[in-house]
Design a protein that fits this description.
- This is (S)-ureidoglycine aminohydrolase cupin domain-containing protein.
- By secondary structure, the protein is mainly beta.
- It has one domain: Sandwich (Jelly Rolls).
- Strands 1, 2, 3, 4, 5, 6, 7, 8 and 9 form a nine-stranded antiparallel beta sheet that branches.
Length: about 130
């Protein structure tokens, strides 16, 4: 029995620095806890069903609530800046350049930026 081999090209993406202005992201007032952060996104890839997305994100000093539903995860790698993830129930987790951070499904807490943060991210939802 012969096996078929896929002939479609597989594309990989390398993304280390934001290119251009990116997309300015809004932040609802009820989530904002401190500062007037400017947050920008440079999407690189999104799966057709929207369940996986990657890119670069950057945000200036401030703090805001993040509430992940069940089934949503984020992994990010900090390129520059200083911040922290602060769970509602638990210990503050600071991060800085070179750190890799996993935000688990169901996470409830605060995202803090002390010094402008730029990160590579991957969101995974309901897989």
């Amino acid at each position: 029995m012969s096996q078929s081999i896929s002939t479609h090209a597989v594309q990989s993406e390398c993304f280390n620095e934001p290119q251009g202005e990116g997309t300015l992201l809004s932040l609802s007032p009820e989530r904002l806890l401190r500062g007037q952060p400017e947050r920008r996104d440079w999407p690189v890839f999104e799966r057709a069903d929207g369940k996986v997305s990657t890119g670069i994100w950057s945000g200036t000093a401030g703090a805001w609530r993040i509430d992940f539903p069940e089934g949503q995860f984020e992994f990010f790698h900090v390129l520059s800046g200083i911040g922290a993830i602060v769970p509602d129930e638990g210990e503050r987790k600071p991060f800085g350049p070179g750190d890799a951070v996993m935000v688990p499904e169901g996470f409830r807490g605060v995202f803090e930026v002390t010094e402008k943060v730029t990160k590579q991210y991957m969101f995974v939802q309901n897989i």
